[in-house]
Design goal:
The complex is a heterodimer of chains A (about 325) and B (about 325). Chain A has about 325 residues and is an alpha/beta fold. Chain A is built from eleven helices and 14 strands. Classes of the chains: A alpha/beta (about 325), B mainly alpha (about 325).
């Protein structure tokens, strides 16, 4: 499968080279992913093609190594430099190892940005994060509040008590709790990203807080375990399990109704936005400077911070209406 | 006096301690001691009980099996993948596949210990990582999720017979089987003999290596069975399931008075040890204790239990000597 994709990709690459010769004015933007054959990145490539269709004068070169190594990506970057592409948008396998190769690309006038998984600042012009801590914090409470018109009690089931990212998200969430009147956070428990402990903690939440309306789990092991615990307790419909997870992991629980919705970044939007940014930078329509914003077409615009990093958007919400489309993607 | 003392075995002390903990928790969470909740605690502890019994068989022979949780995860992932790709395979067949596959993995440990005479802790540390590695290879790091498993696959451990779940029944059946095996069969008694004195066991005609190998196969078989129960109960299989659980299994044995030096331990003890851990694990979430304290409390409970056991172990030693003196 991976090999087939690789062959297809190289055929596509050759084809795009030919067409590039024919239409010399077309901008050639290379989307470099961690490895070919991964659903998440295939979806991002779809987004990139969507952006190319919208822009008109863009050819997308979707490429990457066959396994997730920095060495493989360096080879890919070197070949892209040799082809004199206009822009490289990369999701990096290694933050530092790719810097020399990408510096070389920039010195040849190629626009370099990273997205999804970042490169150290000296190796790229800007980095596009799928979301930001503040946006994630707001999203997870909004997911719960949206299905609680009369307010009520919510609890958080996190990973370990020392997990940095989860703690930041929960902190950002508590900052915006005031925007959701009637919704109260009654407890925060830790399942340590272990199925059995998360399951027990979810059971504990249900017995200590009989009026609980929602469990928010900003971790994939936790949300799946909580969904199972609520299902086993026969409380589908009473308690909504939500948080951050991948569509493939939650498809069954969306179908059963124990989880009404959950969120994670949308790879299609991410590929689309990265392409838009790469295009705008390559055509000098925008500059990648700190505290400036770059247009991303239908996704709005991204504001760069001092590290020249920006957040794309709120995490994308998945529910019964779109789960079937995404569960096979990632 | 002697009779009285013989009645107060470690198992009874542990049983009383267990009741005391339940009573203590009930003062803060009244529901905890309800029949329904205790049944759910037993249900939750079932997998640990089954595994602790297998581990006990190994520890009795002066060995240890650290690969049980990895074995569980590998078999769990395998049956989950079988189920998601060939949903037509009936669940009883899958359970049998799980047990046989687990036993085969246990046999690998057993043969390495028996034929190559590598210390068991080294062998099973090795297979612990090897089994995990194999899970990654066969699954490619992908999860098997709830919607990919058939409803029957997930329903089996939850289905109820006479008001008790199949998961709980599995633990009850395992307790009975191990009790019969360890007290009523030559193979079971051989485990105790080897742990008590391996050299003497050889002179009584026991093949020490083969018995140890058998113990590893047993531990492997229960791990495989528990592997199916685990993925069906939590409705998800991924590389890290039951990560670190091998330590809980050993802890349950040690709390239950199974001597890490071999030869000492009862089915009732190992069961109570697993239940003790299960009660603590289930109690901590409902009495609102900071997660940092939870770790300290679990650890202290283990140390206190082992301290008690060390005391009573010494006492039984003396009694035997006294009796020997008296009878001579």
């Amino acid at each position: 499968m991976v090999k087939k994709v690789a062959i297809l990709a190289s055929v596509a690459l050759a084809a795009s080279l030919l067409s590039a010769n024919a239409l010399a004015e077309n901008k050639r933007i290379a989307i470099v992913v961690k490895a070919l054959g991964i659903g998440f990145f295939e979806a991002a490539a779809k987004g990139a093609e969507e952006a190319a269709a919208e822009l008109g004068d863009v050819d997308i070169i979707y490429t990457g190594p066959t396994d997730t190594t920095a060495e493989g990506q360096i080879e890919v970057i070197n070949s892209l430099i040799a082809q004199k592409v206009d822009a490289i948008a990369i999701s990096a396998n290694d933050q530092d190892a790719l810097v020399p190769a990408l510096k070389k690309a920039m010195s040849r006038g190629i626009t370099v940005i990273s997205w999804d998984s970042g490169v150290a600042p000296e190796g790229r012009q800007m980095h596009l994060n799928p979301s930001s801590n503040a946006l994630i914090g707001n999203t997870i409470i909004k997911l719960a509040a949206d299905h609680m018109p009369d307010g009520g009690e919510v609890a958080v089931l996190s990973a370990s008590a020392t997990a940095t990212n989860q703690n930041i998200w929960i902190e950002e969430m508590t900052k915006v709790m005031d925007n959701y009147p009637g919704v109260t956070l009654v407890s925060t428990v830790y399942g340590d990203d272990l199925s059995d402990k998360s399951y027990r903690e979810a059971e504990g939440l249900m017995s200590s807080h009989p009026n609980l309306k929602a469990i928010i789990a900003p971790t994939t092991v936790g949300i799946v375990a909580a969904a199972q615990a609520v299902t086993d307790a026969g409380k589908i419909g009473e308690i909504n399990v939500t948080g951050l997870a991948l569509p493939s992991e939650m498809a069954g629980h969306i179908e059963s109704g124990v989880s009404k919705s959950f969120a994670i970044w949308n790879p299609i939007d991410l590929g689309y936005s990265a392409t838009m940014i790469a295009y705008n930078l390559a055509t000098k329509k925008a500059m990648a400077d700190a505290n400036t914003s770059i247009d991303m077409g239908r996704m709005g615009s991204v504001m760069l911070d001092d590290n020249k990093e920006g957040a794309m958007s709120d995490p994308f919400t998945y529910d019964a209406s779109n789960i079937d489309q995404f569960k096979s993607i990632f | 006096m002697n009779n009285w003392r013989r009645l107060i075995t470690r198992d009874v002390v542990l049983g009383v301690a267990l009741l005391a903990v339940i009573a203590l928790v009930s003062t803060r969470a009244a529901d905890f001691s309800s029949v329904k909740n205790l049944a759910s605690v037993f249900n939750d502890s079932s997998i640990l009980i089954i595994l602790a019994l297998g581990q006990m068989a190994v520890i009795l022979t002066r060995c240890i099996d650290l690969s049980m949780a990895s074995n569980l995860a590998l078999v769990g992932m395998t049956v989950a993948m079988l189920n998601s790709n060939f949903a037509a395979i009936p669940i009883p067949i899958l359970v049998i596949i799980a047990i046989i596959m687990g036993a085969m993995l246990g046999l690998v440990n057993g043969l390495l210990v028996w034929q190559l005479e590598i210390p068991p802790i080294v062998v099973t540390l090795g297979t612990l990582t090897i089994f995990r590695g194999i899970i990654f290879l066969i699954s490619d790091g992908q999860w098997i999720n709830a919607h990919e498993m058939s409803p029957a696959f997930k329903a089996f451990p939850r289905s109820s017979i006479l008001g008790v779940t199949v998961l709980s029944w599995s633990a009850i059946v395992a307790i009975i089987l191990f009790a019969v095996l360890l007290t009523r069969t030559a193979a079971g008694r051989a485990f105790y003999a080897i742990g008590g004195n391996p050299n003497a066991a050889v002179y009584t005609g026991i093949n020490v290596g083969r018995s140890r190998c058998l113990a590893f196969v047993l531990a492997g078989a229960v791990s495989g069975f528990a592997g199916y129960l685990w993925v069906a109960r939590y409705a998800v299989a991924y590389v890290d399931i039951a990560g670190g659980f091998e330590l809980d299994i050993v802890a349950a044995c040690v709390i239950g008075g199974v001597s890490i030096a071999g030869g000492l331990g009862t089915v009732a003890g190992a069961t109570l040890g697993a239940l003790f851990l299960g009660v603590i694990k289930n109690a901590l979430p409902v009495i609102n204790i900071s997660p940092f304290w939870q770790l300290a409390i679990s650890g202290s409970a283990i140390l206190i239990a082992v301290g008690f056991n060390a005391q009573s172990e010494r006492r039984t030693g003396r009694i035997i000597l006294k009796k020997a003196e008296q009878s001579s």
